[in-house]
Amino acid sequence: MTMTTKPEPTTSVATPIQNSLTAGRLPTPAPWLILGAAIAVSAAIFGVMGLAGEAGYNWGGALLVGALLYIPSIWLFSMLVEGRRRAMDRLVTALVTGAFVLAMIPLISLTITVITFGLNRFDADFFTMSMRNVTGEGGGVLHAIVGTLLMTGTAAIISIPIGLMTSIYLVEYGRGQLARGITFLVDVMTGIPSIVAGLFAYALFSIFLGPGTRTGIAGAVALAVLMIPVVVRSSEEMLRLVPNELREASYALGVPKWLTIVKVVLPTSIAGITTGIMLSIARVIGETAPLLIAAGFTQSMNWNLFDGRMSSLPVFVYTQYANQGNPPEAYLDRAWAAALTLILIVMALNLIARLVARFFAPKFGR
Amino acid sequence: MSKRIEVRDLNVYYGKFLAVEGVNLEIEPRSVTAFIGPSGCGKSTFLRTLNRMHEVIPGARVEGEVLIDGNNLYDPDVDPVLVRRQVGMVFQRPNPFPTMSIKENVLAGVKLNNKRISKSDADDLVEKSLLGANLWNEVKDRLDRPGSGLSGGQQQRLCIARAIAVAPEVILMDEPCSALDPISTLAIEDLIEELKLQYTIVIVTHNMQQASRVSDKTAFFNIAGTGKPGNLIEYADTTTIFSNPSVKATEDYVSGRFG
Ligand SMILES: Nc1ncnc2c1ncn2[C@@H]1O[C@H](COP(=O)(O)OP(=O)(O)O)[C@@H](O)[C@H]1O
Ligand SMILES: [Mg+2]
What does this protein's UniProt record list under function (chain A) (predicted)? Predict the structure, then answer.
């Protein structure tokens, strides 16, 4: 086939024909100008109001009212220039962005606060010492870091196999009453208040080891109770995402069901499962109440999960804040630095989860 | 290598729903048999009873007998896993394993079953199967790349290579070309022509030309209405079905005057 009528290049058109598809359009910087104007107006109003009262200038209020003013203004301008559909688009964009910014404010504020206060004691001593024989200044959180890692790690070792196998049962084998019952119980477990999990572990170990025993393993069991339902739920979602076609392809090759699960279904979903597990760890690592009850707290190093009380970072933060000694600043600084440490550990876990997920993800492309 | 299939009074159910009713059919070894018929008449359902894939669906069950060289697949002690090693299957949508390379996909039947295989045997098997599926020349330089990076037609041929690598007696294909372009379709039809020298092949297709091009015998399935079971209406040599069918419904269907 040969093209005989090639479209002429339209570089030198004398009288451009009005394109019927064009519509009015706000210039690109217009939204920013409107936002600036809205904030300026609101700042002026606050300024006038400030003259009357004696309180200082309210910057936050000015910004907030300015942002609120921006939403109807952008809608109005867009309505005049661009028409209904675009105006609606701009309005919703403004609302959604506003909601996002609003949600970010506490996060940013929290991060800045924790970092500024936490850095006071973020030193070598802090990570190499326990609180043994420390009153007043000095001391460190090594015992709490060790406790947190030991108890969370043990909780993970308990709950990952149980949770993963439960989810495999639910997705691959479970039918009828039993599966529905398990799903219901898992949902109920998700809703257990964390302090109840702590009381459960405390009571359980009191039965066997006598009343009043607080050990690391009890804390780990409390955390596992909280962690299992999260692992079950997230792994279940991930296993359900594996297309049935892959299972059938495997069956059609004469592969038994259990091998299909181990070698096709799990590898295909491992990235998502790992992410879910890491998130569940991140969720329980910050638990305070159950550990306070089940594992208690101590000032010294304790490497033994089965003997004696064990500190953890959240409980350390709590006790430092709740039982301030003299000078109180030393206790508060330690609490902030421990909080910062905890946040950093959780961030590191999330980072690892992402790397693992990327590493395991099924590879596409040529 | 290839085997004869006999189906006797087969009823296929999804729970309480009777999807296919009263099929009697004999398939000769080393032949290509095509199943045609309107959508929803139970072609796929019936095909999947031939290697016990049907029961993978919860609640699905079968009444009647399917004999492969005289052995009833539905005898109580028959292990469906062993059946599926003899009766391979290629699905409508190409489904290579996304976590595996091209080579691993071909070896999937061996590797997934935890069988040991020496490296040279594995390489031979990969080459033989890919040659058998007419894919070797296109992928021989990138055997270690992911199988999901191939084109649709190549993926489907990879699935065929994967199916023949376990050396089945029978290969079932459920609309293997419906997701492919005409050139890939031709490649697969040529391949079926070659495969039939060694295997018994059953293929479901919506494409009349394809049925008449590749198959020796054709089975026409039909359904009386939604919610009714599908039936085998006519089963005969492909030339007979397309030129001189004995049932009016078959003639209407193959000549496009259906409904
Ligand atoms: N997984 C299933 N569960 C219940 N009914 C099904 C299922 N798959 C197919 N069916 C029903 O079985 C009948 C036959 O379907 P199918 O074998 O897919 O037809 P075809 O392949 O000829 O288009 C249809 O009525 C369909 O709704
Ligand atoms: Mg079908």
Answer: Part of the binding-protein-dependent transport system for phosphate; probably responsible for the translocation of the substrate across the membrane.
Segment holding B70, helix H or strand E: none
**Domains in chain A: boundaries:** 30-121, 128-359
Task: Indicate which atom in ligand 1 lies nearest the CA of residue B60.
Answer: 3
Tell the residue number behind the tokens 């409107």, with chain if given. Answer: A34
**Across B57-69, average pLDDT:** 92
Strand partners, B120: none
CATH architecture entry for A128-359 = Orthogonal Bundle (1.10)
What share of chain B in percent tops pLDDT 90?
75
pLDDT of residue A8: 52
Enumerate chain B positions whose Cβ falls within 8 A of a Cβ in A: 51, 53, 56, 58, 81-86, 88-89, 91, 93, 95-99, 108-109, 111-114, 142, 145-146, 148-150, 159, 162-163, 166
Rounded to the nearest 10 degrees, what angle do helices A84-118 and A59-82 cross at?
160
User: Taking CA atoms, what residue in A is nearest to B159?
Assistant: A249
Task: Inspect the interface and report whether the beta carbons of A246 and B97 lie closer than 8 Å.
Answer: yes
Closest ligand to C-alpha of residue B41 is 1
Average pLDDT of chain B, as a whole number = 91
Q: Please list the ranges in chain A whose pLDDT falls under 50.
A: 1-3, 365-366
Grouping H, G, I as helix, E, B as strand and the rest as coil, residue A95 is helix
Picking from A223, A192, A353, A232, the residue whose alpha carbon sits closest to that of residue A287 is A223
Give CA–CA dist B40/B24, Å, rounded: 19
Ordered by start, the domain boundaries in chain B are 5-94+169-255
Contact B97 A243 (CB under 8 A): no
The interface predicted TM-score (ipTM) is 0.92
CATH superfamily of B5-94+169-255: P-loop containing nucleotide triphosphate hydrolases (3.40.50.300)
